[in-house]
Design a protein that fits this description.
It is a single chain. The protein is an alpha+beta fold. Strands 5-4-3-6-7-8 form a six-stranded mixed beta sheet, with helices on both faces. Strand 19 and strand 20 form a beta hairpin. Helix 2 (about 35-55) runs antiparallel to helix 4 and helix 2 packs parallel to helix 8. The radius of gyration is 38 Å and the shape is elongated. The two termini are about 45 Å apart. Keywords: Glycoprotein, Membrane, Secreted, Signal, Transmembrane, Transmembrane helix. This is von Willebrand factor A domain-containing protein 7-like. It is found in: Secreted.
């Protein structure tokens, strides 16, 4: 019950990791979703294939495309082709399925790609760990518009990875740390394409400057700018209706980046100030913000519409993320390969064959009579391995140990066998004293500094003095899955002289026996005379693609016939037999039934003693071999070999899809995942057998092929048995021969659960400390548990509690503390093992462990800019009517716009606009970072180009835009007056700061009561808006003071401040519409000489409150509102740094009349026809628009209002004449002609 309850907790917490691309296929929402694992691995394979083509090792020639065009492109297919030669090994290539006899590869010897696969696995695991341990930090996932911190994170991690790999004394620990940091970097990089609107704006293009040092921040939406609309994206995402696709819910300015907010993260979604418009949500069923305006979301993490409102762009986002990953790794000049060099890049991806060959040597004084023999064994092994380029180890590791360890010789890690031999020859016996030695400490160092699945050989003549480290060693062993063999020339109590390996005897309490049994290794009791024979045994284990087929202990009364399956990919078979009483007596039969004879080069007797025999068969025939054992004694059987076909397994939590850490819990249900290398040789993977320590079958689990992208993965539901077990994977190859691969690591289920707390990690900085929480759950009897902790770089300082008594069915929480000295480099990675074990102390007492990976981060003081820049249109000169936009005359008419721009945050960065032929944008010269000083900008064009968008960006990336658009329908009745190129006759004139509105009502309907309500609403809207934006606008402040202050008192407006111009309202040129012109006076001015607030400010307020104003007008439609003038104003230069109090957030001209003009004119019949056409075609084909339109069909319109300051003037005719059913701001959008709601 306890385990089940805990599983529910994990499901609730971890199933909500819907923040970006999912970590792996088992957490994906949809079978064909691209996951972080898919994206990272696919990119790595492409990059490595290209790298090996362009950087072949000496003696290898690879033509362009030979590796990159492989299908399938897998680690083993790349290695098989790269190490091509002559052999009889068959590798079959598939498209979507593996097809027999498609392509035949031959090569000299099998070279396993497991090291490469492990390196990529380290990166993908670190990538996935972000969703486990840093789920709720929005900047890590590019959520919540946290661009400044997200970009800083990318720049920092990129620098750390490169600087780590550029170290002159680069160690394997450094390389491991770089992989972890790369995984963290790639997670955030890939999330950019899933969680922001980059893909909506740019498709699958890579943002090459993203996270690059010294590159400017991209243009991003300011805090006050609305970025999404609720109109076509309901909370549940796309619902399948024509108007609820979420395809048009983004309304951020063109080219401006935004991202969605997600519930539960560290930054809350701002409350919307408009009924339909607001900040974007992330979206998905676990995001509560999807219910708040703007509803829905924009994430592209899945093909599932319920989880990803922009599911239709999932594949595009995934492709962009893959290309961006490749760009980071391999871009010319800036990519990781060019930054660190080809040799380090090869080491980063473990592109050489083989694993680590490690010798752990006791160099205490008691080894004086044995150390020479141990040296001879070691050197013979090394020379034999180095002679075969396909079998030689990836690197060599020598770990001397002594008592104390400070007396031990130096540890050596090298890829040069000569250097290694020199280090072994330099060993000398010294020190020590008492008989037990620190062998567990030496073994711990060996596991920390070798590759996974390595071969480790420990030479000693003494028992372990530090047996208390046994659990730490076993914990590391469970992670590394290495094989450890002990060569003992004595013990503290007696000299043991027995060559017979003790790998299958009942496990005693001796740590050597326990570790050998856990790892699938052996314990040899040897003399100096037996050194040569042992070296031959060990040499058989050192090859480029070692596999274990089976192990079996057969009692004297057991069956005499044992089947040995041999598949096409098994190039070498080594049979080791041990008799319980005498030399083994047996017959070995080939698949044809013939007796296999020995004594030739293809069938050798490698070792033969009184009880021990080792046989080697080269290129054994595929099929079922039979071993017949003579009666009269028991036997231990081990079958190993050489093959690229091999497997690994993981236990996954069924709720989260993440691999468990430590040992599984007895009685709990898990997902068993079987992954393979060299699967080109496997026809079908059918089952996983759970075997006890003797090799007897406990249960058989039938595997299913898991859906997902990439190489096949095989899964089944499993409840681990109570006794220790190993897993054997079985299937059939391409020619229907049975294959079997045994995973030698012993798995033990426990009643004690140890897991990391679900929380964001505290960062660890140089000179600082941090804590990582954990939970210990006791599913067994009441017990007292001891907790110990160790790491590989000395960052861990302790664990609290170190001892705790826990009743059955209860749990305790604790934490591990870390501390980094000021001299520790950022990017340093610590792999820490936390172990909990019962105080009972027996080998069967409950114990478990977890791995904690900690990275030292660089402490960066980041100044966050919360003040966006401001762009104000100060004057407009000229006008482009429909007549003037005619192609034959448009070049004769010009117009220009004057603007003022300022930033009070980090400072201005750049100003840009879409400039075509005949258009000119000029600005005052300024240095990026200019603060609190206004610059002027001028934009000029002809009526052939009647639109303008000018964007100002500050150093934080925040933007503001000045937008002007004269575009109106060009199909209209011929002009009734002749064109005058020099003058424009205004139809109506209004005072400066005036807003004019075109309203669907008659003049008679604008009664005194309506006027009163209208003025009160405008005044109330001004007051409310100014309360929220008092820091942005001088006119909103009671005291118009320019000095920087933390607060200002906002203005309060009343109805008397709202002034309707004389002669208004008046009938418009369009029937059934009126034009109303008005301004709002600053309360600081007098009634006799009112000073209008800036027209641009008033325009934004009315846009923002359009629904309320329409209600005040009796729910009459406001078709458009605008500021416009034809008088040529003279701009008075303004120095905002001179300390004066003059107001400058509205236009100032040299004209005493402060007159602006508007011109409205569209032939009604033409407009009506155009709208009817749009209505008809819109039901046939949805228009391809970037954002919804909320205005009716008139000639001058505004964008949907945005909270914040985006100075927009007019909108294009193409967008004006969108579908008639599209609502005005404030009206309910319709899904059909008569539908009252849209979801």
């Amino acid at each position: 019950m306890l385990a089940a309850g805990k599983k529910v907790f994990l499901l609730v917490i971890l199933a909500q990791t819907s923040l970006s691309f999912r970590p792996n296929r088992f957490s994906a929402f949809y079978p064909l979703d691209y996951t972080h694992e898919d994206i990272t691995k696919t990119a790595a394979l492409k990059v490595v294939a290209r790298f090996l083509e362009e950087n072949p090792e000496d003696g290898r020639t690879v033509s362009p495309g030979q590796l990159q065009n492989l299908d399938p492109l897998t680690p083993s297919s790349i290695f098989s082709r790269y190490y091509g030669g002559e052999s009889s090994v068959f590798c079959y290539i598939r498209g979507t399925n593996y097809k027999p006899n498609a392509t035949l590869y031959t090569y000299v010897g099998p070279v396993s790609a497991k090291n490469f696969d492990e390196a990529v696995g380290d990166i993908t695991k670190a990538n996935a760990d972000i969703d486990r341990h840093d789920l709720w930090t929005s900047s890590v996932h590019f959520n919540a518009e946290q661009f400044q911190t997200a970009l800083t994170r990318l720049r920092n991690l990129r620098t750390i990875v490169i600087e780590t790999l550029q170290k002159a004394d680069l160690t394997d620990l450094d390389v491991s740390a770089a992989r972890i940091n790369t995984g963290s970097y790639l997670h955030t990089l890939q999330d950019f394409y899933s969680n922001t609107n980059w893909v909506e704006n740019n498709g699958a293009a890579v943002y090459e400057d993203l996270g690059m040092p010294d590159s400017p921040n991209p243009a991003v939406a300011s805090p006050g700018i609305n970025t999404c609309s609720s109109t076509d994206c309901p909370p549940g995402g796309p619902s399948g209706g024509p108007l609820t696709t979420c395809e048009n819910n983004l309304i951020s300015p063109e080219g401006v980046l935004t991202s969605g907010y997600r519930s539960g993260q560290d930054v809350d979604k701002p409350a919307a100030t408009h009924e339909w418009f607001g900040k974007c949500s992330h979206g998905g069923t676990h995001d509560a913000t999807r219910e708040a305006t703007a509803t829905g979301g924009i994430n592209k993490e899945s093909l599932d519409p319920a989880e990803s409102p922009h599911h239709f762009l999932h594949n595009t986002a995934a492709q962009a993320a893959m290309d961006a990953t490749e760009h980071f790794l391999y871009a010319a000049g800036s990519g990781l390969k060019d930054q660190v060099g080809a040799d380090v890049f090869r080491r980063f991806f473990n592109l050489a064959s083989g694993t680590s060959l490690c010798i752990v040597m006791d160099d205490t004084g008691s080894m004086s009579d044995d150390i020479a023999a141990a040296k001879a064994v070691s050197i013979e092994i090394i020379q034999g391995a180095a002679a075969n380029p396909f079998d030689k180890p990836y690197n060599y590791v020598l770990v001397p140990f002594n008592d104390p360890m400070s007396d031990a010789g130096p540890m050596t890690i090298t890829r040069d066998s000569a250097v290694y031999i020199d280090a072994i020859n330099a060993l000398n016996a010294h020190g020590g004293g008492d008989c037990p030695e620190l062998s567990m400490t030496g073994l711990e160092l060996a596991l920390q500094n070798t590759l996974p699945k390595s071969k480790i050989y420990l030479f000693t003549d003494a028992d372990p003095k530090d047996s208390d480290k046994l659990q730490d060693v076993i914990s590391l062993l469970q992670q590394k899955k290495s094989k450890i063999t002990f060569l003992l020339t004595g013990s503290c109590s007696r000299k043991r002289r027995d060559l017979n390996g003790r790998s299958k005897r009942a496990v005693s309490g001796n740590p050597y026996d326990v570790i050998a049994e856990e790892s699938g290794g052996k314990v040899f009791d040897i003399t100096k005379d037996e050194v040569a024979e042992v070296s031959e045994v060990i040499a058989l284990e050192v090859n480029g693609a070692p596999v274990t087929v089976m192990t079996k202990s057969v009692p004297e009364s057991g069956p005499r016939d044992q089947e040995i399956p041999v598949d096409e990919a098994l190039l070498e078979m080594v049979l080791t037999l041990t008799g319980s009483a005498t030399a083994p007596v047996f017959q070995l039969y080939t698949p044809t039934g013939a007796i296999q004879s020995f004594g030739s080069a293809d069938a050798q007797v490698v070792i033969e003693t009184d009880q021990y025999k080792v046989l080697k068969v080269t290129d054994p025939a595929a099929g079922m071999w039979r071993l017949h054992l003579a009666d009269g004694q028991g036997y231990d059987i081990e079958v190993t070999g050489k093959s690229v076909l091999d497997f690994s397994t993981e236990f996954l939590d069924t709720g989260s899809g993440f691999p468990i850490d430590g040992r599984p819990i007895g009685g709990s249900e898990y997902r068993l995942v079987v992954s393979g290398s060299g699967l080109e040789n496997a026809g079908n993977v059918t089952s996983a057998d759970l075997l006890d320590q003797s090799g007897t079958l406990l249960s058989r689990i039938y595997l299913q092929t898991s859906s997902g992208r990439g190489e096949p993965v095989y899964t089944a539901t499993i409840v681990p048995p109570a006794q220790p077990f190993r897993i054997s994977v079985e299937g059939i190859d391409q020619r229907n021969n049975t294959f079997r691969r045994l995973l030698t690591t012993l798995i033990e289920s426990e009643s004690l659960r140890l897991e990391l707390a679900v929380e964001n990690r505290e960062p660890l900085y140089p000179g600082g400390s941090s804590r990582v929480g954990f939970v210990l759950v006791n599913g067994g009897s009441d017990d007292t548990f001891q907790l110990t902790v160790s790491d590989d770089v000395g960052l861990v300082t302790g664990v609290t509690p170190s001892s705790v008594t826990i009743a059955t069915g209860t749990n305790v929480t604790g934490y591990v503390t870390f501390s980094a000295a000021t001299t520790v480099s950022p990017g340093t990675s610590s792999t820490t093992i936390l172990t909990a074990r019962s105080s009972l102390g027996s080998s069967t007492a409950p114990s478990n462990f977890i791995t904690i990976r900690t990275i030292v981060s660089e402490r960066i003081i980041l100044v966050i800019d919360t003040s966006p820049p401001v762009c104000n249109i100060t004057s407009v000169v000229g006008n482009c009517t429909a007549v003037r936009q005619r192609p034959d005359v448009c070049a004769d008419w010009s117009w220009s716009v004057q603007m003022m721009m300022i930033d009070s945050g980090l400072g201005l960065s750049r100003v840009y606009g879409e400039v075509s032929t005949g258009e000119v944008l000029t600005t005052d010269d300024f240095t990026p970072g200019l603060q609190d000083v206004a610059i002027r900008a001028n934009y000029s064009s002809t009526c052939c180009h009647p639109k303008m968008t000018v964007t100002v960006v500050d150093l934080a990336g925040y933007v503001d835009q000045c937008v002007l658009d004269f575009s109106i329908p060009t199909t209209e009745a011929p002009p009734t007056t002749t064109r005058s190129p020099d003058t424009v006759t205004p139809e109506i004139s209004v005072a400066s700061g005036t807003v004019a509105m075109n309203i669907g009502m008659a003049v008679s309907e604008f009664t005194e009561e309506v006027e009163t309500e209208f003025k009160a609403t405008v005044a109330s809207s001004m007051t409310s808006y100014c309360q929220r934006h008092v820091m942005e606008f001088l006119s909103c402040r009671q005291t118009e003071h320019r000095a920087k202050r933390s607060t200002h008192d906002s203005q309060t407006f009343d109805s008397d401040n709202v002034v309707i111009l004389e002669g208004f309202p008046k009938s418009s040129m369009s029937p059934d519409r009126i034009t109303l012109a008005f301004f709002v006076s600053n309360p600081n001015s007098s009634a006799e000489k009112p000073v209008p607030v800036p027209g641009s400010l008033l325009l934004m307020v009315i846009q923002h409150s359009q629904m309320r104003v329409q209600e005040a007008l009796g729910w009459k439609t406001i078709y458009n509102m605008y500021l416009y003038g034809t008088e040529v104003p003279t701009l008075i230069p303004i120095d905002v740094t001179d300390g004066t109090d003059e107001q400058t957030d509205y236009p100032v001209t040299g004209s005493s009349s402060h007159v602006l003009y508007i011109v409205i004119g569209v032939v009604v019949s033409v407009v009506t026809i155009a709208v009817v056409i749009v209505l008809i075609t819109s039901w046939l084909k949805k228009p391809n628009v970037t954002k919804p339109t909320y205005e009716a069909d008139q000639n001058i319109n505004l964008d949907p209002p945005m909270a914040g300051h985006v100075n927009r003037a007019m909108k294009s005719a193409d967008e004006q004449m969108k579908m008639e059913e599209e609502p005005l701001e404030g009206e309910f959008p319709m899904t059909g002609l008569n539908s009252p709601t849209y979801w």
